[in-house]
Amino acid sequence: MTWTVQTITPCFYVGDLPVFGDLVLAPMDGITDSPFRALARQFGSAMSYTEFINGLDIVNQHPYLNERLKFSEEERPIFFQILDNDPQRIVQCALFLRQYEPDGIDINLGCSAKSVVNRGGGAALLRSPQTIAQIFSNLTKILDIPITAKIRLGWNEQSRVRQDYLKIAKILEDNGAKLIAVHGRTQQQRYGEQADWEAIAEIKQAVRVPVVGNGNVRTPSDIKHMKTITQCDAVMIGRAAIGNPWIFSQREISQVAPSEVLRIMREHLMRMIAFYGMTRGLILFRKHAIQYLRTYPITRDERRQLLTTISPSQFMSCLNTIMERLNH
């Protein structure tokens, strides 16, 4: 049985768009493809974000675009996330993406990867408030769907201490952003150190649009704690959801029986194969498989065998053998 969290009335609105639920799967490059987004929604994630879509790849019509832009109706509401630093190109890209009928467009202002920030994208834009204002002003004037943002708490510790994040949040709201997702770390911190939930609470108090909190949420108790501290409208969960979609049903992974883990792994693999084809689907599923099994005492040989099988039937046979051993 798959557990989902259902609400009768919307928990919040993104513009005029109702969102039924207050847990959200974070966009993650190389992870949150259509199969995983659909699985997370099945377990209770309230909305979906694509992996970031590079603006230059849209302009140049990169071959990977078709995959990144595919989504199923069960993933709605879905937001296409754009990664770029040029206001004109972002508008061009957003207009191109609009034809695919997403529920909204999200602008990535939080990616901390060096390959991104070194060319001025992601969290690097936090150092250029006027560019952010221009981007959102342009988009909200041209598009008829909600425009949202995912940010960090600034570029470095100095910007965090100055509370530049409050300035950025107000600029976003004043220029038409309908939701702000906040990762409670700076670009400099990447994923190290504890996320600053108090700063997320300050942003929530400073703006009227919904605020989604992100960072250091690994368990159902973390979800409750973040809600209490930040009073945010929703909690966004990233790395902790890989191999653990049960977190969107607020279930502890320790409470999930191995038989259920096996069943969901099989379902996830079948979704991957249907989306990518047999060979590639299996290869791409391996990184998820290791995370599903991370709490189990898997031997080195079992891990090697699982990650080198060349067919789904061999993979499932190997997985069944492992899980049978763990059940005894």
Q: Mind telling me the C-alpha Rg?
A: 20 Å
Kindly report the name of the CATH homologous superfamily of the largest domain.
Answer: Aldolase class I
Shape: globular
The rounded distance between the terminal residues' Cα atoms is 23 Å
* Largest sheet geometry: 9 strands, parallel
Under the CATH scheme, which architecture of the largest domain would be assigned? Answer: Alpha-Beta Barrel
Q: In percent, how much strand structure appears in the residues?
A: 5-15%
CATH class of the largest domain: Alpha Beta
Task: Determine the CATH topology of the largest domain.
Answer: TIM Barrel
Q: Roughly how much helix do the residues carry, as a percent range?
A: 40-55%
Outline the secondary-structure elements.
Elements: E1 12-14, E2 17-19, E3 23-25, H1 34-43, E4 48-49, E5 53-54, H2 55-59, H3 65-69, E6 78-83, H4 87-98, E7 104-109, H5 114-117, H6 129-142, E8 147-151, H7 157-161, H8 164-174, E9 180-183, H9 197-206, E10 211-214, H10 220-230, E11 234-237, H11 258-276, H12 278-292, H13 300-308, H14 312-327
Parallel strand pairs: 3-11, 4-6, 5-6, 6-7, 7-8, 8-9, 9-10, 10-11
Antiparallel strand pairs: 1-2
Helix pairs in contact: 1-11, 4-6, 6-8, 8-9, 11-12, 11-14, 13-14
